[in-house]
Each structure stands twice: as structure tokens, then as C-alpha cells.
Write a structure and sequence with these properties.
single chain, 355 residues, alpha/beta, six-stranded antiparallel beta barrel, 11 helices, 26% strand, elongated
């Protein structure tokens, strides 16, 4: 029997999310972020589904190679640029764009005598990657000799919070840094794209919103017009009656407060579900919302079965997606939707619908 743990990818929903993104930024080109195996959705699958995007962004040369070997001719941007000198020749051969964020990377290009399309990253306050404002002019001068084109870019630290003051501060810093230059610009990720029109500029870099997840704290994907792309499903492999006072699962961490029905679901942290998702994390059993009880184990989890679910062996369980927003599951399990999406690449079986 095939293990019932599965990940369902809704291609139609993903296409609609891309369309919604374009409606928010009609004057901008879209650099669709498909790094980390397209946030756990499948790199090649999502490159095909997001075919109408203007370019793709990945985190490593390996991801770019996979795309090119599969026949992808889109513009591809390496978001962290080259990690070592030996990558430059491959980048050039594959016709890739590179983000350049350090003088060491400029030296790689100079030494290789490569002429590449460059996205020059400016540090405007996140203090992670990028050239400080007082180093921009010199870095630009050096890159002008090794680049076929330059696009200025930066990244916001807190755009996921509507009205956060640091976004305006970073915008001001960015505009000061590029004053006098004429090149294209890229600032907005998903959250900034939705909330700061002035950040949209020539290129936007949507990631999370393309997969139907809200990039804004305290707001749902549905309220933003986004459709969930990933749904995790499994089935009940046991239904039992447990008396009040009895414990459930490893460590006896959950004590039944009354006589109750307990279901066992064939999905665990070996399938990518977070082990931190203990008692209180929501699940749907036969479309009835209930909760995880006790500790999630490698291959299974235990859930409370409300009488209204009328649950039996083999019944369907939804762990997130559809009517159960991943944002709720992430909040209950003490993490963020990004991590949950990426973890789903483990053992569960993938199915695609609607593409």
C-alpha cells in the first residue's frame, strides 16, 4: 500500500497568484523567486507554471544549472552571486545574471575578465549583504568595466509589517545612494510590493505571495486575493477511544481531560511536518477543524477527533492548505510559513493538479 502522506501542488492557483501579482505592479517586470526548490514546490514544476514571469531568481549555481539543463531560457538571477572564482566561467556559459554584493566578488569578475549582467546590491539598513552607501560610487565604477548592464537593488528588513518606519528610511537611503545614476532598480519583495508602491520600481521580486501565502504579518492570503498552492494531506490509520486521565504518545505529554476519540495520522517529521507542532496545532479531519495532541513523531501524529467529524480508518486529514491556512499552522508551531513550505520536500509523495 502506498503511504498516504502527500503534497498536492495546485498549478492553477499558482498561475492566478502570478496574475494577481501583475495587477499590483503593472509597470514593473517580475523576477519570480524560485529558490530552495521553489519554496518546496518543485523547481522545474514551478518554472514551467510561472512561465509568464519575466525572469527567475535562484540562490545557487546548482539551481540555475538544473533550469538550463531542462531547457529553461528565461533570464536567471543568482541572488547571492558567485561563491568562488571557479563559478564565473559556468555563469558566463549559462548566460546568467549575478547579484554582486562585495568587493571580493568584483575582483572575481575582474580577474576572469567576464562581462556579465549584474545586479548591484546596496546595504540600506539590513546589514547583511551589499555595498554601504559611501562605497556605491566606487563599486559602480569598478563594475562598469566588467558588466554588460547594472541593476541597483536592495532588500527590506521589515516590509512584512505594514507602516514600519524602517521601510521609508531604507527607501530614502537607497535613493540617496543611487542619486545621479540612470540604471534600473529592484527593491520590492512580496510584502513591499503589496504595501509600498514607491518600492516597485523597474523590477519586483515576489516569492511567498506567488505560492499563495500572506507575506504580511497578521493578514491572510485570502484577504490579499491569493490562493494556496500547496496542500498537505494524509489519512487516519487508527481511531481509538481513550479514557480520561490516560496519556497519548511519547513522553505522555498529553493527558486526556475526558473520554475522547484519538486519531493517528500517517504524517510526521520524517515527511516534513514540524516536530514543534504539538498540542493545539490545527488540522482538518473530514473538513472539521480539530487539533494535534501530544508530540509529533517521525511517521505519525495524534489528533483529537471531535464527534462532528464522524471519523473512521482511512478518512482524509488536511495538515495545511485549502481551508486551513498555512499561516495558522506556522503560528501554532512557533515558526514561519517559509520554513514549513521548504520542509515539505522530504518524504511525502507529490501530486500536481490544475496546471
Amino acid at each position: 500500500m502506498t503511504r498516504p502522506a502527500k503534497v498536492i501542488i495546485d498549478g492553477h492557483a499558482a498561475k492566478k497568484n502570478l496574475e494577481t501579482t501583475r495587477l499590483h505592479c503593472p509597470q514593473s517586470k517580475i523576477l519570480a523567486v524560485i529558490k530552495a526548490d521553489a519554496y518546496g514546490h518543485g523547481l522545474l514544476r514551478m518554472a514551467r507554471i510561472f512561465n509568464e514571469a519575466d525572469a527567475f531568481a535562484v540562490a545557487s549555481l546548482d539551481e540555475a544549472v538544473t533550469l538550463r539543463e531542462a531547457g529553461c531560457r528565461h533570464r536567471i538571477v543568482l541572488l547571492e552571486g558567485p561563491f568562488e572564482f571557479g563559478e564565473i566561467a559556468i555563469i558566463d556559459r549559462l548566460d546568467l545574471d549575478v547579484v554582486i554584493h562585495s568587493s571580493e566578488q568584483i575582483s572575481m569578475l575582474e580577474h576572469a575578465r567576464a562581462i556579465l549582467p549584474v545586479w548591484m546590491k546596496i546595504n540600506t539598513g539590513m546589514n547583511r549583504l551589499g555595498f554601504d552607501v559611501d562605497a556605491v560610487a566606487h563599486a559602480h565604477h569598478r563594475l562598469s568595466g566588467t558588466s554588460s548592464s547594472i541593476i541597483f537593488m536592495t532588500h527590506f528588513a521589515n516590509s512584512q509589517v505594514r507602516g514600519d518606519a524602517t521601510v521609508g528610511s531604507q527607501l530614502t537611503t537607497f535613493d540617496t545612494a543611487i542619486s545621479g545614476f540612470q540604471e534600473e532598480q529592484s527593491l520590492a519583495n512580496s510584502s513591499a510590493l503589496l504595501t509600498y508602491t514607491n518600492a516597485q520600481r523597474h523590477w519586483v521580486r515576489p516569492g511567498l505571495m506567488l505560492y499563495g501565502v500572506s507575506p504580511l504579518y497578521g493578514e491572510t492570503a485570502r484577504s490579499l486575493g491569493l490562493l494556496p498552492v500547496m496542500t498537505l494531506k494524509s489519512r487516519l490509520i487508527s481511531v481509538r477511544d481513550v479514557k480520561a486521565g490516560r496519556t497519548v504518545g511519547y513522553g505522555g505529554s498529553y493527558v486526556c481531560p475526558y473520554d475522547m476519540k484519538v486519531g493517528v495520522v500517517a504524517y510526521g517529521y520524517g515527511d516534513g511536518y514540524p516536530r514543534s507542532a504539538n498540542t493545539g496545532t490545527p488540522v482538518l479531519v473530514n473538513n472539521v477543524k480539530t487539533q494535534v495532541i501530544g508530540e509529533c513523531s517521525m511517521d505519525m501524529m495524534t489528533v483529537q477527533l471531535p464527534d462532528s467529524a464522524e471519523a473512521k480508518f482511512g478518512d482524509e486529514v488536511v495538515l495545511w492548505g485549502g481551508e486551513l491556512p498555512i499561516e495558522e499552522v506556522a503560528r501554532a508551531s512557533g515558526t514561519i510559513p517559509y520554513e514549513l513550505l521548504c520542509r515539505a520536500r522530504m518524504r511525502a509523495r507529490y501530486e500536481e493538479v490544475g496546471a
